[in-house]
Amino acid sequence: MNLSGRRESTNVDDRRGMSTAAKVGGGGFLGIIIAIVFAYFTNGGDLMSALQSSGALDAITTQGQVSTEGREFSEEEQQLARFSKQVLASTEDVWTKVFKSMGKTYVPPRMVLYTGGVQTGCGQGNASVGPFYCSADQALYIDLSFFSSMKSQLGADGDFAYAYVIAHEVGHHVQHLLGTLNAAHSKMARLNETQANKISVRIELQADFYAGVWGHHENNMFGSIEDGDLQEAIQCAQVIGDNYLQEKARGYSQPESFTHGTSAQRMRWLKLGLSTGDMNRGDTFSLSESQL
Q: Which helix H or strand E contains 149, and what residues bound it?
């Protein structure tokens, strides 16, 4: 992905070098670790929703922050930080234009870069969560070490794959601004776990679609997509499918526990957004399960 000379977003809170010290409630560290491991392999690598619903986040209370300001960042991490800021700037440009075409005003989210742990409007965040979006403070949170984990643990690599991850979280912000996210979460709260999971899948697939919409308009506006970029993102969508992660972790999958969608579904909605750029094609909530 060619972002040479492109601006970096200033809507970034760089908290790298600060780690959050915390204490654990009555469940103890073992219970928290079990929740984290289980949720990682059953929630597409994004643990925030699972930890919130399981109560694991409630077991952690912030004691304060421990400064590690003396830490020196590698050139690779600094490059990833610059790249992430450029991708965020791109999403600001693209979604401002798309919202304007719909007669709406786009209000960009903040991006928080952190190391290890972070306090958010949605509770305590941890690097194990992977990148996540919090609608309470309209911010997306990223520990840049996640991109190294993508490469080493999942075999998903490449700048456009990393950009897709950021664009997916921004997609949740788009859902928040359009009212979709809150409506879906409200409905989930009234359902049992299996039915709520089905709504979660629709939320995540739409965020994949919006990531594709961003890529479509980014390329039309700036011609930034290079040979191999699309395959990088599609490969990433494949290896973060619920079925792929569950089968990799334990040899089988449980569809009733899916919260992000299968590999085939995630690739399909990402590709649809990339190929059309049409917001009207992304209603994942009105389709039957077989149409997803």
A: helix 145-149
Three-class secondary structure of residue 116 per DSSP? coil
Q: Is 141 left (phi over 0), alpha (psi -120 to 50) or beta?
A: beta
Q: List the chain domain ranges.
A: 12-291
Give me the phi and psi of 57, to 5 degrees please. Answer: -65, -35
Q: For residues 159 and 90, give the distance between their C-alpha atoms in angstroms, rounded to a whole number.
A: 14
Cβ atoms < 10 Å from Cβ of 117: 22
> What count of other Cβ atoms lies within 10 Å of the Cβ of residue 128?
19
In angstroms, rounded to a whole number, what is the distance separating the alpha carbons of residues 165 and 153? 15
Among 263, 243, 270, residue whose Cα is nearest residue 255: 243
pLDDT, tens only, 202-224: 999 999 999 999 999 999 999 99
pLDDT > 70: what percent of the chain? 82
Q: What interhelical angle do 75-101 and 159-178 show, nearest 10?
A: 40
CA distance 84 to 87: 5
DSSP E strands in the chain: the ranges are: 12-15, 18-24, 60-67, 110-114, 117-120, 123-126, 132-134, 139-142
CA-to-CA distance for 36 and 290, rounded, in angstroms?
Answer: 30
Residues with Cβ within 8 Å of residue 262, at least 6 apart in sequence: 241, 242, 243, 244
Question: 4-21, pLDDT tens digit by residue?
Answer: 999 999 999 999 987 554
Tokens of 12: 């970034």
DSSP assignments along 196-224, one per residue: HHHHHHHHHHHHHHHHHHHHHHHHHHH--
Query: Coil, strand or helix: which one is 253?
Result: coil
Which sign does the torsion angle of CA 99, 101, 104, 105 carry? positive
